[in-house]
Amino acid sequence: MVGLYKLLLLLLLLLPAHWIAESKLNFIPNKIECENYMPTFLTNLACVLKSNDLNETVIDMDFIAVRELNNTSVSFSFNVMIGKSTVNYINKRFDICTRTGQDALEDHIITRVISEEIKKSGNILNDCPYKKNKHYYVHGFKVKEHSIPPYFPEMNLTITIDLVTNRRKTMRFLAFGRSVKVGKITSRIIP
């Protein structure tokens, strides 16, 4: 049996070329919600779906910290809808005020991609503790096509991000959307 596997591997390596299909995925949000649980901590919370200059759907979110917010963490949940059932793919809490918590955001491909794009498009993950009377925002948030690994399937998904301050849920952000293959499927020859 081992000889058969070696023979198949040798045949694959000796073939002059083979085609590998590549495709890119795009996250398309179709609904977002924000809820302020602690108006004494945050004001002017707003979430908006809009189109950017390239006619892509992007997310904007704004709020003002009413007071300095210490001991802040983010509870992150990523749910995938397959058929009629929902699978909780990730459910983690990150202490964003510590280096360990910031590093933990980098541990998983999903949280890494989302946190990198949030950092590029806003200041929400830049300050900790959150400063009193400061405007925090994410403008033009979009997960770039090259950021999503090609092995991810097309799917419907829900992203839930809870901002927790001193063990109190302060704010909830919900994004509903789907990942879809975009552009043409290209092929390349591997010698």
UniProtKB/TrEMBL annotation:
It comes from the Eukaryota. Keywords: Signal. Coiled coil: none annotated. Residues 1-23 form the signal peptide. Transmembrane segments: none annotated. InterPro entries: DUF1091 (IPR010512). Pfam families: DUF1091. The keyword NAD does not apply. This is Uncharacterized protein LOC115625429.
